[in-house]
Amino acid sequence: MSTVNRQWLFRDFVEPDELPGPNNFEMVEGERPEITAGQILVRVILLGTSPAQRMYISAEREFHIVVEKGEVMQGRAIGEVIESQHADYEVGDVIQAGMSWQDYVVLSPDETDEHGKHVVEIEKFENPTRPLTTTLGLFGQLGCSAWVSMIEIAQVKAGDSVLISAAAGGVGSIACQLARVQGAKRVVGIAGGPDKTQWLLDKGLCDAAIDYKNENLAEAIPREFPDDIDVFLDNVGGETLDLALKHIAVGGRLAICGSISTEYQRPRPPGPTHYYNLIYRRARMEGFFVFDYLERWPEFIAQMQTWYQEGKLQLTDHVFDGLEHAPEALGSLFSGGNTGGCVIRVSPDPVSLPALD
Ligand SMILES: NC(=O)c1ccc[n+]([C@@H]2O[C@H](COP(=O)([O-])OP(=O)(O)OC[C@H]3O[C@@H](n4cnc5c(N)ncnc54)[C@H](OP(=O)(O)O)[C@@H]3O)[C@@H](O)[C@H]2O)c1
Asked: Does ligand 1 have an atom closer than 6 angstroms to the CB of 289?
């Protein structure tokens, strides 16, 4: 195992009008860190990505997580304990926690802040399986966001017509499948470019797909939904949300997961003009934050694993291979460079893990 520890340090703020990427970071190399009593040393295996990480490195400093210049970029990660001086952790344990963009991370599981709250919340997997990408995708934060959207918020039911934006992304590609599991009559995905719409159709994730970069959404949405939309899952906001509101059915549900097209714009753009359809169509629009559903995690995992074993769900991960590609992977969320859930492989899964059935 290498004794070199590569780290991506945050260097320059990302401006509202630019994509996050290599220009915001610098890679440095140092020695693998050592641990002391009460600590564990973790080999980082996978890094998750989220558009929200953009706010860690924006000049606004408003988000609940911010990374200071010169610090290692933060991110959710999966890793293997390779040294332990803590009674609750053994070498070989596979864990998930908020970590950082580097090869090796030292964690202090008992460390608390001034309010007595743990500085790092660590999830130890009881029966991890290969590929570990599932712990970030289908059975992780992306899958849970899709599950909350489709099952809790939108309550998709048999016969519904469902529209999903950023359908070829992490949350979207899983949400398409969950809509089907719930008995949706028709699932239509919106994605950027012909390769992505074709991917949605080839993988059987959608009945139809709209390429918003080459089609007029104002024409395509009513074409695909002559009887209006029962459920809309929004990952992008802006014009897409406004048009979904325009064509929402009576009793329709709009689950608001994200607003990547407008959320990071400054000044903030005006809101949707067709919101009054919430009144006329007796529709409901509701947002959520996936981390509010941590108590429901066992229920989510159990349902998703059952559906996976029944062949109703498939993996849709887009793996960027190598820590060196971490800034590019983050940027891909904004340029549309990912197809499926975007994860960064830093090192291999432990060979001892059994394969997912
Ligand atoms: N509420 C929560 O708790 C929660 C949890 C997780 C994620 N989220 C949100 O859910 C959304 C999806 O997250 P994810 O991690 O699965 O990302 P993702 O969908 O895999 O990646 C983002 C996608 O958004 C599309 N996009 C980027 N800029 C766009 C623009 N200006 N207009 C339209 N589409 C644009 C791109 O797809 P195209 O190539 O198709 O344009 C890109 O691939 C994000 O908004 C994220 O912030 C919310």
From this structure: yes
